[in-house]
UniProtKB/TrEMBL annotation:
This is SMI1/KNR4 family protein. InterPro entries: Knr4/Smi1-like_dom, Knr4/Smi1-like_sf. The lineage of its organism: Bacteria, Pseudomonadati, Bacteroidota, Cytophagia, Cytophagales. It comes from Xanthocytophaga flava. Residues 20-158 form the Knr4/Smi1-like domain. It comes from the Bacteria. Gene3D superfamilies: SMI1/KNR4-like (3.40.1580.10).
């Protein structure tokens, strides 16, 4: 399902702000803005009220590009917090300036509902027909850059929110890690002992929160040299945070998660994710020899 691993859950657990919205709460918000949200968006907001996406890149005409980067996320929704583009621009522009910015005869910016402020310089909107005579019942999704061109340049339009979500991929500068899940009754210290021997890695123990992404009693990291110009930075942690949320909630039966970050000394030598996956599969075979059940959870999208 499209909702299964859409969100990255908050490490410190859900609060009243981040918990999923109820049907009643969503109806109140929709009544305030005058539009009904797409069904998939409503379902996602019932699971978690905004946050970071697992898959953040989208296929543009000239190739796949990251959409949600530099901490961009879907905004949380509350009564009074969801605004349209007209309301947003009216905070610092007069009516004449807004008309000039729109550059269109039909201008219904109040039909552009902002669902993400992205990284602070653009908007992701549900478009209920801002350049049309009649209101759309099902919105398209559009992205506007507030710094390109005339200061209000559309750079992506997708026919529906469901299409957008279904075509998002794990790819880009912020999506280079490979993730492995481990199902085991062993403690994390015992798992580390197995990995240290089978993979010939010296691990170091940590108790930090990794800038808010972790919430564990402890986790481990180490370096594994594959060949002369390639090494893997390895992070091993529990899957479930102390708060009860997960790194991979759609794989909650996995006790531990191994994060692998390939590092190349020669930046001019390019390898795709398929090559890395072959090496990782060989590492998994070594764990199988010790009856440790491990499987790949997530790999970067491969363009080749």
């Amino acid at each position: 399902m499209l909702t299964d691993d859409f969100w990255i859950q908050p490490a410190k657990g859900f609060t009243d702000r981040t918990r999923g919205r109820t049907e009643e709460e969503i109806l109140k918000i929709e009544s305030t803005i005058g539009f009904r949200f797409p069904e998939l968006y409503r379902d996602l907001m019932k699971i978690q009220n905004g946050g970071h996406l697992r898959r953040r890149a989208y296929p543009f005409e000239d190739g796949i590009q990251e959409l949600f980067y530099n901490n961009a996320k879907l905004d949380p929704i509350f009564v009074g917090s969801v605004v349209n583009v007209l309301q947003e621009l009216s905070e610092f522009m007069d009516e004449e300036e807004i008309e000039e910015l729109a550059q269109t005869e039909i201008n219904h910016m109040d039909r552009l509902i902002i669902v993400s402020s992205m990284y602070g310089h653009s908007y992701m909107c549900f478009d209920y027909g801002w350049q049309e005579e009649t209101v759309r019942s099902e919105p398209e999704v559009c992205f506007f850059d507030m710094e390109r061109g005339n200061g209000f340049e559309e750079y992506l339009r997708v026919e529906s929110f469901e299409k957008l979500v279904s075509e998002l991929v794990y790819y880009g500068y912020e999506s280079t890690r490979f993730y492995i899940g481990i199902k085991s009754s062993l403690s994390i210290d015992e798992i580390i002992d197995v990995l240290a021997v089978q993979w010939s890695v010296k691990f170091q123990e940590h108790t930090t929160d990794r800038y808010g992404w972790f919430n564990f009693d402890k986790w481990f990291s180490g370096e594994l040299e594959i060949i002369s110009d390639l090494s893997f930075h390895i992070v091993v942690s529990p899957n479930q945070h102390r708060s009860g949320t997960y790194l991979f909630q759609n794989h909650a039966d996995n006790t531990f998660v191994i994060e692998i970050v390939p590092t190349q000394k020669d930046a001019t030598s390019e390898r795709d994710s398929t090559e890395y996956a072959v090496v990782i599969n060989n590492l998994l075979l070594k764990l199988k020899e010790k009856s440790v059940t491990a499987s790949i959870l997530l790999v970067p999208f491969n363009l080749s």
